[in-house]
Automatic annotation (TrEMBL):
Keywords: ATP-binding, Cell inner membrane, Cell membrane, Membrane, Nucleotide-binding, Transport. GO terms for molecular function: ATP binding. Residues 10-260, 280-528 form the ABC transporter domain. It comes from Cupriavidus numazuensis. This is Glutathione import ATP-binding protein GsiA. Gene3D superfamilies: P-loop containing nucleotide triphosphate hydrolases. The keyword Isomerase does not apply. Belongs to the ABC transporter superfamily. The gene is gsiA_2.
Length: 545
C-alpha cells in the first residue's frame, strides 16, 4: 500500500446524492466516506447502478442538472469542491483533476480531429505553446499505444476503432499530468495487450508524478493487477473497504463474496464441438478498407479481414479473440451484411448470403442477429426501451401485444426492472444499455447470434447472468453463437472452439484448452500473458466460502 501519514489528496465525507422522487430508490449514493492518497490507486467496484460513476461525476462537478449532493463534503487538497463555483471547477478540470469516461464515442467531438482534441486541453490551460503542443500530442498518442501517431492525429474519431478511441480519451486526460485521475471503466473496450499497456502507463505516470488514481471498474482481474485499496459499493452504499489483498482473498461482506463468486475463472472448458449440422460456413472472407488520401495523409490500404475461414454448427459457440483492429468486429459486420466484402463465401444454411441482394437477404435478417459493441450508438435515443425491443418482432409479423409481452420477459431475463420498458436509453448506465441491446437481439430467437463484445460493459454478476442466459437460449433453440471478445477468461470458459485473429488473419485455432493452456503462436502467447490478475484465482475464494 502506497499511502502515507500525510493528509489525503481526496477525502469524501458523508456524501449523499438524492435521486428524483418516484424512482426505485431515494438515493444514488448514501453517506459514503473514503480517502484517496497521492501515489495510490483506489479501485471502486460494484454492480451497474451501485453509484460508482455517480460519485466519480460528483467529484468532477459533472452531475446531471437534476441531481445535486444533498449533504457531505468532497475535499480535494483540503478544498471542498461542493462549495466551488463552475468557473473554479472548470479551471481545475484537466489541470488538477481529470477523468477518463466509460464511453469514448460520447466523450469525443465527432467534427474535430483527435490531435486537435488533445491539443485543446493544453490550449484551454495555456500549456505547451507553439510547436511544443504538437510534439506533446504526438508523444501522448505514442504513449497510449496508437499506431502511426503522425497520421492518426489528423483522423476523426469515426475512423478509429472503439479501443483506439478510448486510448485517445486517456491521452487527453493525461495531457497535463493532473494530481487526481478518475478513470471510469477506462479499459472496458480494450483488448488485453492494450489494457496491460494502459494499466502500466497509468502506474508509471502515477509513480513519476505522485498522482492519485480512482479507478472505477467491474473487472476484478484489473483490481487484482493494480489496486492498492478497494471500495465495494452496493445500491449507493459503501459496504466494504480495505487493502486489495484483503478484499480479494478474504472478503467479509456477503455482497463482495457474491461478486467474486461470479468472476469468470478463466479455465479452459472441455466442451466438445457440436456434431450437428453447420449453420454457417465462411470461406476465404476478405474485406479491405482504404483510408487517407487527403491533404495531410497518404492513401492506405488495410486488409481488415484477409482470407478468413471457419464454421459454426448449431448449438455451438465459436470464440473470436484478438486485439483491437485485428478484424474481429469487421467479421461480424460482414456476416450481417452491414458492410460489403471483396471476396469469399458466407454460407448460411447452405445458401451463400454474400451473393444476395439486400431485398433477397432481408427475410433472413431475423435469423442472423447481432449484439453490438457500443450500446450508446446502437439504441435509438427517441424510442422507449419497450419499443426498441418489440419493433423487430412486430416488423416480422408478431402481434404488438405479444411482442411487448416478450419484451417485458426479456428485460427481466437480462436483469432490468419492469419500469425499464417505458424509459429511454439515456436514462440507463452503459452496462444497462448493453443489456437492452442483448434483449433486442434475442427477441427474434435467431438461428445465428453474433455477440460483439456483448458482456464487456457488464459487471461480473450480470455478466454471469447474461452468459447463462445465452447458454440456455442456445440449448433451447439450438442456435449457433459467434462470441467476439477481448475477455479471454470468458472465451475460455464458454466457447467450444476459438480462433485467434491478428492483423486480419487467423493465426491459431482450436479448442479452448489448446489455445489457453498450450498456445502455439507467439501472438497467442502474448495475449494470454497480458491477462490482468492472472495470479489471482477467484475459485479459491469460492471454495473457501
Amino acid at each position: 500500500m502506497k499511502t502515507s501519514d500525510h493528509a489525503p489528496l481526496l477525502s469524501i465525507r458523508d456524501l449523499s446524492i438524492a435521486l428524483p422522487k418516484g424512482g426505485d430508490r431515494p438515493y444514488a449514493v448514501r453517506d459514503i466516506s473514503y480517502d484517496l492518497h497521492a501515489g495510490e490507486i483506489l479501485c471502486i467496484v460494484g454492480e451497474s447502478g451501485s453509484g460508482k460513476s455517480m460519485s466519480a461525476n460528483a467529484i468532477m462537478g459533472l452531475l446531471p442538472s437534476y441531481l445535486r449532493p444533498e449533504s457531505g463534503q468532497i475535499l480535494f487538497k483540503g478544498r471542498d469542491l461542493l462549495a466551488q463555483d463552475e468557473a473554479t471547477l472548470l479551471a481545475m478540470r484537466g489541470k488538477d483533476m481529470a477523468m477518463v469516461f466509460q464511453e469514448p464515442l460520447s466523450a469525443l467531438n465527432p467534427v474535430m480531429t483527435v490531435g486537435d482534441q488533445i491539443a485543446e486541453v493544453m490550449r484551454v490551460h495555456h500549456a505547451c505553446p507553439g510547436e511544443a503542443r504538437a510534439r506533446r500530442v504526438l508523444e501522448l498518442l505514442e504513449f497510449v499505444g496508437l499506431p502511426d501517431p503522425a497520421t492518426l492525429m489528423h483522423a476523426f474519431p469515426f475512423r478509429l476503432s472503439g479501443g483506439q478511441r478510448q486510448r485517445v480519451v486517456i491521452a487527453m486526460a493525461l495531457a497535463l499530468e493532473p494530481a487526481l485521475l478518475i478513470a471510469d471503466e477506462p479499459t472496458t473496450a480494450l483488448d488485453v495487450t492494450t489494457q496491460a499497456q494502459i494499466l502500466d502507463l497509468i502506474r508509471r505516470i502515477q509513480a513519476e508524478k505522485g498522482m492519485g488514481v480512482m479507478f472505477v471498474t467491474h473487472d476484478f482481474g484489473v483490481v487484482a493487477e493494480i489496486a492498492d485499496r478497494v471500495a465495494v459499493m452496493e445500491k449507493g452504499v459503501l459496504v466494504e473497504m480495505g487493502r486489495a489483498e484483503q478484499v480479494l482473498n478474504h472478503p467479509q461482506h456477503p455482497y463482495t463474496r457474491r461478486l467474486i463468486g461470479a468472476v469468470p475463472h478463466g479455465r479452459a472448458s472441455e466442451r466438445a464441438r457440436s456434431q450437428a449440422e453447420t449453420v454457417l460456413e465462411v470461406r476465404e472472407l476478405r474485406k479491405t478498407y482504404v483510408t487517407g488520401g487527403g491533404l495531410f495523409t497518404k492513401k492506405r490500404v488495410v486488409n481488415a479481414v484477409d482470407g478468413v475461414s471457419f464454421t459454426v454448427r448449431r448449438g455451438e459457440t465459436l470464440g473470436i479473440v484478438g486485439e483491437s483492429g485485428s478484424g474481429k468486429s469487421t467479421i461480424g459486420k460482414c456476416l450481417l451484411r452491414l458492410t460489403g466484402i471483396e471476396s469469399g463465401e458466407l454460407l448460411f444454411d447452405g445458401q451463400d448470403i454474400a451473393k444476395l441482394s439486400e431485398r433477397q437477404f432481408r427475410p433472413l435478417r431475423r435469423d442472423v442477429q447481432m449484439i453490438f459493441q457500443d450500446p450508446f450508438a446502437s439504441l435509438n435515443p427517441r424510442h422507449t426501451v419497450g419499443r426498441i425491443i418489440s419493433d423487430g418482432p412486430v416488423a416480422n409479423g408478431v402481434p404488438v401485444a405479444a411482442a411487448q409481452a416478450r419484451a417485458r420477459e426479456l428485460l427481466q431475463l437480462v436483469g432490468l426492472e419492469a419500469s425499464a420498458f417505458d424509459r429511454y436509453p439515456n436514462q440507463f448506465s452503459g452496462g444497462q444499455r448493453q443489456r437492452i441491446g442483448i434483449a433486442r437481439a434475442l427477441a427474434l430467437e435467431p438461428k445465428l447470434l453474433v455477440a460483439d463484445e456483448s458482456v464487456s460493459a457488464l459487471d461480473v454478476s450480470v455478466q454471469a447472468q447474461v452468459l447463462e442466459l445465452l447458454g440456455d437460449l442456445q440449448k433451447r433453440l439450438n442456435i449457433g453463437l459467434i462470441f467476439i471478445t477481448h475477455d479471454l477468461r470468458v472465451a475460455a470458459q464458454i466457447c467450444h472452439h476459438v480462433i485467434v485473429m491478428h492483423k486480419g488473419r487467423v493465426v491459431e485455432s482450436g479448442p479452448p484448452a489448446q489455445i489457453f493452456d498450450a498456445p502455439q503462436h507467439a501472438y497467442t502467447q502474448r495475449l494470454i500473458g497480458a491477462i490482468p490478475g492472472k495470479e489471482w484465482d477467484p475459485t479459491l475464494i469460492r471454495a473457501a466460502a
